[in-house]
């Protein structure tokens, strides 16, 4: 049951990533997607994969993209 709820949240975050109005909103959706994916890995009894996803997907990737957005600006959204 909880896996279906997580899948629903992941689907909602995928929609936020695709249809977000700004790059920052899409980035937050991507980060939340990774967080829900981390929980899914934990439910599937893969704690090593969950920790890697948390560190890279939620942490490092979000930080790198946020720095790139800040440095280039959001002028690409037309």
Report on the structure:
The protein is mainly α. It has one domain (2-72). The protein has helices at residues 2-19, 23-43, 47-72. Helix 1 packs antiparallel against helix 2 (23-43) and helix 2 (23-43) runs antiparallel to helix 3. The mean pLDDT is 90.
Task: Considering the chains and any ligands shown, give keywords for the structure.
78 residues; mainly alpha; 3 helices; 0% strand
Gross morphology:
flat
Number of domains: 1
In what range is the share of β-strand residues?
Answer: under 5%
Low-confidence stretches: none
Averaged pLDDT, please?
Answer: 90
SSE topology string: HHH
- Discrete helix count: 3
Q: Compute the separation of the termini in Å.
A: 40 Å
Number of strands: 0
Radius of gyration: 14 Å
In a few lines, what is going on in this structure?
The protein is mainly alpha-helical. It has helices spanning 2-19, 23-43, 47-72.
Write the layout of secondary structure elements.
Layout: H1 2-19, H2 23-43, H3 47-72
Helix pairs in contact: 1-2, 2-3
């Amino acid at each position: 049951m909880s896996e279906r709820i997580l899948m629903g949240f992941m689907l909602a975050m995928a929609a936020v990533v695709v249809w977000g109005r700004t790059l920052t909103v899409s980035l937050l959706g991507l980060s939340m997607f990774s967080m829900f994916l981390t929980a899914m890995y934990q439910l599937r009894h893969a704690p090593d994969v969950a920790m890697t996803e948390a560190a890279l997907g939620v942490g490092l990737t979000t930080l790198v993209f946020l720095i790139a957005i800040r440095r280039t600006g959001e002028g690409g959204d037309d």
